[in-house]
């Protein structure tokens, strides 16, 4: 029931709206699926052995996973909408007011304790810290013997949990002349429970807390046997199973919400916000789990390596226990992957591999050039994934099909993490097969530049690894980088990564445009020192690639998402391009700050546009109302082009110009209002393509009104 409570079953709440429920599905989970996910499993007693040509494989008889992918993908929550976020914000404000009210120290401590057990204290960390600081200062000044047993125990636990300095000596006041805790306090069950929880926060050589642990455990067990109060007995039994701060916080929150409802003395507002928070966070967990389950299904490792533990749910629980906060979605997704792979590697050694195979496997791992990946660049994820590039061909085939390991990888050749070198017969490729020759060359160049930068500047090694070197293709690197750049507290980086990667990987036009834009920046901008520099740091390039995806979404009628993406692009890069605007290939947004492109604007191929350029309308006119920029055009800094005007192929617009009428091909328009160089009747013709040559000033000798 634990897994169902955390990930599937929402809490009933007085605050609800009519919305989509669980989707209809033919999947019917059996009763066994409601069990706790950690079940007893058979254990292996010895590893596989080889006798001559016969390999005897051992099996640990691991049970198949209870949570199937089709069931996981069917999980659904209605607690995602803006209406729930607004209600939560209202409740949060009311709780903040509650925390600011004047009340005695014990009431404040009980309120903090309730927030902690309900799993919502992380929303009020600053308020809680201020209260505990006041209580700590007050506690140091007053006579400690006047504090009640319950208040002192609760105060000690909360202060020490929040890393305030407090001595175990505060409990000496509750001892008798013999140095033992007074038995009269055994009737105070709340005090005994608080002292029990406090005793698990001891540091080295704190004997008083060890005595307190023995004292409370003894009398709490006696209370269970003698008490007829079923609710209190349930609370005590729960505490004795595991101390509070050792538990998974979200599971404890689920249990505490039920208990506080049954007690009936808690502020109703706290229960409402706790339920709403639990359900909203649960919806995020469901998306994280769906992502991890889809990844696991696509790897097919559960089927290919059937001897190993297939326990995605247990792996996901581990990440929830480490980082339950909703903003740690990326950690949970990546952490689940890492633990799943490490678990399988563990079973390769413990269960399946023979000694000779494991020696080869170990040599392959040790042959990774970890020195080159130092300085933070070598992560557990990269090592694990690289290891599985070797492990999967080795252990997923029948023994008779196993070739000599040297055919798969050369153990004498040092290999950077993530760059395993396979023989030509190997079906595994380092670079995505969808990449054409131009993409392949450019991606290889970018990775080579990143490696060189990581060696020359170790402080950037980890950054370069996570953004470039750990990825197998340009679209993956670009998707990862854009996702991290454009994410927010409500628009998660993992969601954006999936969005960008799906667009780039399925649309060759987007990938070829990105390649052309990278080449344009490298060739036209003398400040662009490398392709990797442009990929990581040129906000004009990044804004343009993000716009291309937004434009794709717009054409797919996913317009709210396209507009949300436009807003994030404008916020992060200071570039405002309407998602309906059409942009060609080989585009250079040089500096890019302040560029505005309207809804019906069209920009051709090989166009260069500098900062603070506006391609706008002339007022409230609807329909086709924005400029059309031909191929090879150069638009100088601060230029403004308004209305449905055409800028001809190969034209040049001078810096600061205001253009309100058409500009013929291969001509130069300068000024406010803009005029053609050479006159309207016989304007001077440009020989080169200004969008590629980037020549901003060739017209000056012919511009009679040019004055210094």
UniProtKB/TrEMBL annotation:
GO BP terms: namely: cysteine biosynthetic process from serine
Pathway-wise, it operates in: Amino-acid biosynthesis; L-cysteine biosynthesis; L-cysteine from L-serine: step 1/2
Q: Does the keyword Transcription regulation feature in the UniProt annotation? A: no
Q: Which cofactor does it need?
A: Mg(2+)
Which Gene Ontology terms of cellular component type are present?
Answer: cytosol
Q: What is its EC number?
A: 2.3.1.30
Q: Which residue positions does the secretion signal occupy?
A: 1-16
Entries under SMART domains matching the protein: SATase_N
Question: Does the entry feature the keyword Cytoplasm, yes or no?
Answer: no
Coiled coil region boundaries = none
InterPro entries in the record, alphabetically? Hexapep (IPR001451), Hexapep_transf_CS (IPR018357), Isoprenoid_synthase_dom_sf (IPR008949), LbH_SAT (IPR045304), Ser_AcTrfase_N (IPR010493), Ser_AcTrfase_N_sf (IPR042122), Ser_O-AcTrfase (IPR005881), Serine_acetyltransferase (IPR053376)
Top-level class of the enzyme under EC nomenclature: transferase
Family the UniProt entry places it in: Belongs to the transferase hexapeptide repeat family.
Q: What is this protein called?
A: serine O-acetyltransferase
- Origin organism is Cucumis sativus (Cucumber)
Phylogenetic classification of the source organism: Eukaryota, Viridiplantae, Streptophyta, Embryophyta, Tracheophyta
